[in-house]
Amino acid sequence: MADLRNTFVGIKSPNPFWLASAPPTDKAYNVERAFKAGWGGVVWKTLGEEGPPVVNVNGPRYGAIWGADRRLLGLNNIELITDRPLQVNLQEMKQVKMNWPDRALVASIMVPCEENAWKSILPLVEETGADGIELNFGCPHGMSERGMGSAVGQVPEYIEMVVRWCKQYTRMPVITKLTPNITDIRKPARAAKAGGTDAVSLINTINSIVSVDLDTFAPTPTVGGKGSHGGYCGPAVKPIALNMVAEIARDPETYGLPISGIGGITTWRDAAEFLALGAGNVQVCTAAMTYGFKIVQEMISGLSDWMDEKGHRSLDDIIARAVPNTTDWQYLNLNYVAKAHIDQDACIKCGRCHIACEDTSHQAITALVDGARHFEVIEEECVGCNLCVNVCPVENCITMNALPAGSIDRRTGKPVDPNYANWTTHPNNPMARQAAE
Ligand SMILES: Cc1cc2nc3c(=O)[nH]c(=O)nc-3n(C[C@H](O)[C@H](O)[C@H](O)COP(=O)(O)O)c2cc1C
Question: Fewer CB within 10 Å, N side or C side of the chain?
């Protein structure tokens, strides 16, 4: 049986699946249920400083994007950090940690960008027995207008400064949670590292308006006739999150910095992809909010079965395995050639591949052969773009086949050479460089 035990910045958990800081981790009742269901850890819903209460809207907080089958693809929220009193949260965290010593419990914190504010809250959190802290530099709405959350996460100097304070005033490991609402994610990650962070976690939610009510002409969710931008998450954001995780994992300046991967993780496969791209563990929010806490059981069994099948004995066998294969465009092999192939037995003759290719691409798929509907790839025209595969409604009906070394691409007349540039030893690969030093 594959060993799913995980140690992240010294914090142990029985599996790599943590619940991200959000409503599922807002109170002891939820977290107890989550641990019973099998979650390896939680990042408690973000705590703020003691003082005027945080007040949420009393109307709709969420908007969504759905697939054709009404499956939730993207969730948008305008919720703030916890609106429960700090002392109540701290007491509950202490009790939960005592009840579940083998699970990870991390406190998410967001207080004003002042040294004293951080200095005062850290001992209170430490007293709960929490395993670590996560600095919320990510929330893009509500708190950011007050100079917190993503307002800090968008300024690398502030990140470095606050991380430094936290490292100075607590012995707990510090995880810096980054906002994706920034052009180059490597900059805040580098700043966090410069401040001495133990890890980064990402992504928090993405600035978004999910829709506009065309009767009232107001963005949704609409609160009393007005809407504001919110934070987007769920399956739709996974590709953005994966890329940002990979950017940090392969940046020579942050290479080796532990990463907690977050963003759209719904299945064990999503989690495995984050781990492969360099995450040391993963955090989940929307999937738990959509399907309930027991979804973790499928994640655990799925990951474990796959690892057994592939002969991966522990998470270390997977973590960062895809990083060496993630490169910049200029290192892609232009002598590698693939051509689309349509399985005539599987083809339902809908013609979507033809029309996509004919109208918008390379005119490389027939529609009629001898007067009958027949969809076939014209190899001399096919550039191997993969659009037909993506628009075909039948899975595996159209596949991309790589031409073998030495054959001639009938479109260009040039020989095929799939064995060019080995990225593993490429000088631009941080791992290769480190190995060489
Ligand atoms: C309703 C809601 C509230 C959230 N509140 C917080 C929060 O208080 N602190 C925080 O760091 N992230 C918060 N998040 C962001 C999540 O922790 C997570 O980073 C994001 O949702 C992406 O993960 P997902 O795609 O699995 O949902 C919140 C997300 C949602 C949906």
Answer: C
